């Protein structure tokens, strides 16, 4: 696979999964009613220090999601999000099966859904594991921090190998321009 295309691969993952975390973390931090409900849910599950845990999880999701989107601290945050999703999978969603949407009946002709299963947790785990294993990608804050000093790019990049070094690239042949081997 072309290295230039691979350098873009992490970007859609970071944007989608980071936005998802921001979306779920926002009400835990900035809505008093939803924060209180979340504290009650954590307390009901036996999570220690539910008030502190609610603030910590809300901050992780909101601010961690923003950092994931810009590509900063991606490995650390991805590992934390994998752990969070595993805990949510086993403590909350596992009893409701795999499917994200569980219809339990109808009311006035509209479907009524029960608690979601663990399908979305599995998708988040897969996405964050992909980011953990492959990194934030070239277009990220992490890559900017690791970037070699000016002039060191050529030394850091392995030489390009082709099967036929004397042969012109296919794009040059189609353009009608003379090649070095002609």
What does this structure look like?
Helix content is 61%, strand content 5%. It has 9 helices and 2 strands. The protein has a two-stranded antiparallel ribbon with strand order 1-2. A hairpin with a 2-residue loop joins strand 1 (103-107) and strand 2. 19% of the residues are buried. The mean pLDDT is 88.
* Number of beta strands: 2
Q: Uncertain runs with pLDDT below 50, 5 residues or more?
A: none
Distance between the amino and carboxyl termini: 29 Å
Assembly of the depicted chains: single chain
* Rg, alpha carbons: 23 Å
Q: Tell me, what's the shape?
A: globular
Average of per-residue pLDDT values: 88
Spatial order of strands in the largest sheet: 1-2
Report the order of strands and helices: HHHHHEEHHHH
Number of domains: 1
Strand content: under 5%
Helix content range:
55-70%
Q: Summarize the biggest pleated sheet.
A: 2 strands, antiparallel
In short:
The chain is mainly alpha-helical and 182 residues long. Helix content is 61%, strand content 5%. The protein has one domain (8-149).
Keywords for this structure?
single chain; 182 residues; mainly alpha; 9 helices; 2 strands; globular
Strand and helix map with partners:
Layout: H1 3-6, H2 10-30, H3 32-44, H4 50-70, H5 74-93, E1 103-107, E2 110-113, H6 119-134, H7 141-146, H8 153-156, H9 170-175
Antiparallel strand pairs: 1-2
Helix pairs in contact: 2-3, 2-4, 2-6, 3-4, 4-5, 5-6
């Amino acid at each position: 696979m072309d290295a230039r295309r691979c350098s873009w691969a992490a970007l859609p993952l970071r944007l989608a999964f980071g936005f998802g975390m921001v979306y779920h973390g926002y009400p835990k931090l900035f809505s008093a009613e939803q924060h209180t409900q979340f504290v009650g849910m954590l307390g009901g599950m036996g999570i220690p220090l539910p008030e502190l845990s609610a603030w910590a999880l809300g901050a992780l999701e909101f601010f961690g999601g923003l950092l994931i989107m810009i590509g900063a601290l991606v490995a650390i945050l991805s590992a934390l999000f994998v752990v969070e999703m595993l805990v949510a999978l086993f403590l909350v969603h596992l009893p409701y099966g795999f499917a994200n949407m569980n219809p339990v009946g109808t009311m006035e002709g509209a479907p009524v859904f029960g608690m979601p299963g663990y399908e979305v947790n599995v998708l988040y785990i897969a996405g964050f594991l992909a980011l953990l294993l492959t990194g934030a990608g070239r277009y990220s804050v992490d890559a900017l921090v690791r970037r070699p000093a000016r002039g060191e790019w050529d030394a850091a990049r392995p030489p390009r190998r082709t099967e036929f070094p004397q042969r012109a690239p296919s794009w040059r042949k189609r353009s009608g321009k003379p090649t070095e081997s002609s």
